[in-house]
Specification:
The chain is about 10% helix and about 35% strand. The protein has 5 helices and 22 strands. The strands form 5 sheets. It has a 6-stranded mixed sheet, with no helix packed on it. Strands 2-1-10-5-6 form a 5-stranded mixed sheet. Strands 3, 4, 7, 8 and 9 form a 5-stranded antiparallel sheet that branches.
Length: about 375
């Protein structure tokens, strides 16, 4: 009996009413992991605590055999080994990266996929060659409009066998703000395998799907790329029953503030316990649309808000900003919350608009706390 890809790769779907997290979703959650929220205290996330999302398998790579090809609409096709890339002038940028599906598991009805809560984020110092430097060496021909990036990870998704592949408009790929990197180093050491060793793309301000890992090919095209990860996945679609809706592409990160959980946790529920009196509330806030200009904190479930003290973002930087607020805790149950507003006036919603893929869910975080003696 012959088999087909559809036997193992089913269409995307929405969970039924009352349906719990499936064994397949638990398996995804075991492969991928989020940032422990107490690690928000680190300005730069240690690599082992940075969130990870791997679509297929982590490729086995070696320095000696790796090549990055640059072709398509270029005057001078390139094939660069790692020595040649590392010999080019490198820069380092501190960049906050967030998965586009962060918060998906909190939606109702729930899109069935990697069941992120709010922890799919991290900030690292990425070192590498500006993408525009490599493209300048290849000399883009007139008519080139996009750069298509191919990773070495290969699999099947919704019945489509594919390499992981995404594109960027050529203006973004060659722009100076933000500068896109071909990164080979994370926090001062070679990329760990799960973070794209030996090469990955870093696109400051964009959700994680744009940061192609295990990068092996760049192709310039004269038409927009219509591959699976560009035109099927990573689209905002509002209707659950309109699979032909083309949707709107997921691009830049929406504003978000997260709180370091105060006090100490219950093992199972993760509910927090604090003692009466002064409590320091702190966390990080970020946005792909520019600096965060305001963080507000509520200690009564969103009925009232006070403004937190917010650290400025470094000029030209694309990393999160620290915030803090002092609270006088009184005995009883409390719900803490934090919300961010960026320079473009975009603020986190108190009620989350729904979309079929569960993307861009920046609903305000709520942290249950019990204050007792």
């Amino acid at each position: 009996m012959e088999g087909s890809l559809s036997d193992v790769s089913t269409p995307g779907r929405i969970a039924d009413d009352g349906e719990g997290i499936s064994a397949q979703e638990l398996a995804l959650a075991a492969r991928n992991h989020g940032l422990p929220l107490e690690a928000l205290r680190y300005e730069v996330t240690p690599a082992g605590l940075h969130y990870v999302l791997v679509h297929y398998d982590i490729p086995l790579a070696d320095d000696a055999g790796w090549r990055l090809s640059v072709g398509g609409l270029v005057r001078r096709p390139l094939e660069l080994d790692l020595s040649a890339l590392r010999a080019l002038p490198a820069v380092t940028h501190r960049v906050t990266m967030e998965c586009a599906g962060n918060g998906r598991a909190r939606l109702s009805p729930r899109p069935v996929s990697q069941p992120w809560l709010v922890e799919a984020v991290g900030t690292a110092d990425w070192t590498g060659v500006p993408l525009r430097t490599v493209l300048a060496e290849a000399w883009a021909l007139p008519g080139a409009v996009e750069a298509v990036f191919t990773g070495a990870d290969h699999g099947v998704e919704r019945g489509v066998e594919q390499d992981y592949r995404r594109s960027l408009p050529l203006g973004v790929a060659t722009g100076e703000d933000p500068p896109v990197l071909i990164a080979h180093t994370m926090n001062g050491v070679p990329l760990p395998p799960q973070h794209g060793y030996p090469l990955r793309l870093v696109v400051p301000g964009w959700y994680g799907m744009a940061h192609v890992k295990w990068l092996r090919d760049i192709t310039l095209t004269d038409v927009p790329f219509t591959g699976f990860q560009q035109s099927v996945a990573y689209r905002y679609r509002q209707a659950a029953d309109l699979p032909d809706d083309p949707g709107v592409p997921v691009t830049r990160i929406l504003p978000r503030a997260l709180m370091v959980p105060p006090g100490f946790p219950d093992f199972m529920s993760r509910a927090r316990v604090v003692r009466p009196g002064p409590v320091r509330l702190e966390g990080r806030a970020w946005s792909g649309g520019g600096p965060v200009v305001r963080v507000e904190v509520s200690t009564d479930g969103g009925t009232s808000w006070v403004r937190a003290r917010l650290a400025a973002r470094e000029p030209g930087g694309w990393a999160w900003q620290a915030w803090r607020c002092d609270w006088s805790a009184t005995p009883g149950a409390h719900t803490l919350a934090a919300r961010a507003t960026d320079a473009e006036g975009r603020a986190q919603p108190l009620e989350q608009p729904w979309n079929r893929g569960g993307f861009g869910n920046n609903l305000v975080q709520r942290v249950p706390v019990l204050c007792c003696r």
